[in-house]
């Protein structure tokens, strides 16, 4: 599986015969191994040309763009070579059927809740007093099956996340990384900055994997496509937030890898600085390539492979081949 490539400096990406070079403004050059790259994450102010985009398109390489404060701007991907009219029609039919859409959305929320519980129980076994949060989320989880409307399901999901986020200070136990409350645009402290950045990285990874299937990323079931242009990757990413970006945060903070010095204040918000972005992205990519035993099968997979498999499971559900069951972490 081809790997991601991160660019944090300002400069220019140019095609050099049958390869690609990144030239920093300082003049430093770095060759990009295009045959080994699946996507490029652009955080710096980088110039690109049409000639380069044509070349990257032929290689099937995606470009993810972020602004100066790490917010995701968008993705360039090659023309929809994997698109399928049959699958698109099925996706729309499931969305328009209120009961089918609600059933699928419930599965996503169940996946969120069970993976949240897996994280909390993991740290409880390691001496962190997360039992009050476990008990509360277990009570909320039991309510999922009886939910009758999409709005009520979203409200329940919000309660699950709210309770879970309160546990962060227990898991981290570091006054420099107090949670307080969830804030997004802008994040008001380092912990919220990492949550937002980790989520955006995860969204980009999931979106890349969706583009490799026949599914259309514009049609989601938990998140409404009426509110956003792309929503399916948000649905799938929710399941993996507790076990990928949040575990990355706990590792970085509890091991002292990331510190207050790796953040900056801009326009009333707090964001990772360049060194912080590098540290976080490196740990995130390491997590994505972590090898673990797939649930119930004698098969070792990376998290990236598991996400790809999750999307294929969803596609089979939409096509009526097999019922979708969300991935649940086992530790």
TrEMBL record:
It is an enzyme of class 3 (hydrolase). Its cofactor is Mg(2+); Mn(2+). The keyword Cytoplasm does not apply. Mn(2+) binds at residues 157, 223, 238. InterPro entries: CRISPR-assoc_Cas1, CRISPR-assoc_Cas1_C, CRISPR-assoc_Cas1_HMARI/TNEAP, CRISPR-assoc_Cas1_N. The keyword Metal-binding applies. Belongs to the CRISPR-associated endonuclease Cas1 family. Homodimer, forms a heterotetramer with a Cas2 homodimer. HAMAP family: Cas1 (MF_01470). This is CRISPR-associated endonuclease Cas1. The gene is cas1b.
């Amino acid at each position: 599986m081809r790997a991601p490539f991160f660019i944090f400096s300002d400069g220019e990406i140019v095609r050099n015969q049958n390869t690609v070079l990144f030239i920093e403004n300082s003049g430093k050059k770095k060759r990009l191994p295009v045959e080994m790259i699946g996507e490029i994450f652009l955080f710096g102010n980088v110039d690109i040309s049409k000639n380069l985009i044509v070349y990257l398109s032929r290689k099937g390489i995606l470009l993810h763009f972020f602004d100066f404060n790490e917010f995701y701007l968008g993705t360039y991907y090659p023309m929809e070579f994997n698109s399928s009219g049959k699958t698109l029609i099925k996706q729309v039919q499931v969305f328009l059927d209120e009961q089918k859409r609600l059933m699928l959305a419930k599965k996503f929320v169940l996946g969120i809740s069970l993976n949240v519980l897996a994280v909390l129980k993991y740290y409880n076994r390691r001496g962190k007093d997360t039992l009050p949060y476990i008990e509360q989320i277990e009570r909320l989880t039991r309510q999922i099956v009886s939910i009758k409307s999409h709005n009520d399901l979203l409200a329940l999901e919000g309660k699950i996340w709210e309770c879970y986020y309160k546990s962060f200070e227990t898991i981290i136990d570091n006054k420099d990384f107090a949670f307080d409350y969830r804030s997004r645009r802008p994040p008001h402290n380092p912990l919220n900055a990492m949550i937002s950045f980790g989520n955006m990285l995860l969204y980009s990874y999931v979106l890349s994997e969706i583009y490799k299937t026949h599914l259309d990323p514009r049609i989601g079931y938990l998140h409404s496509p009426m509110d956003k242009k792309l929503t399916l990757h948000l649905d799938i990413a929710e399941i993996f937030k507790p076990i990928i970006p949040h575990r990355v945060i706990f590792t970085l903070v509890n091991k002292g890898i990331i510190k207050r010095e790796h953040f900056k204040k801009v326009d009333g918000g707090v964001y990772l600085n360049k060194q912080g972005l590098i540290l976080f992205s490196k740990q995130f990519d390491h997590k994505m390539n972590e090898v673990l035993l797939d649930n119930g099968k004698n098969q070792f997979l990376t998290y990236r492979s598991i996400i790809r498999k999750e999307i294929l499971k969803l596609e089979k559900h939409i096509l009526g081949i097999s019922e979708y069951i969300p991935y649940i972490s086992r530790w």
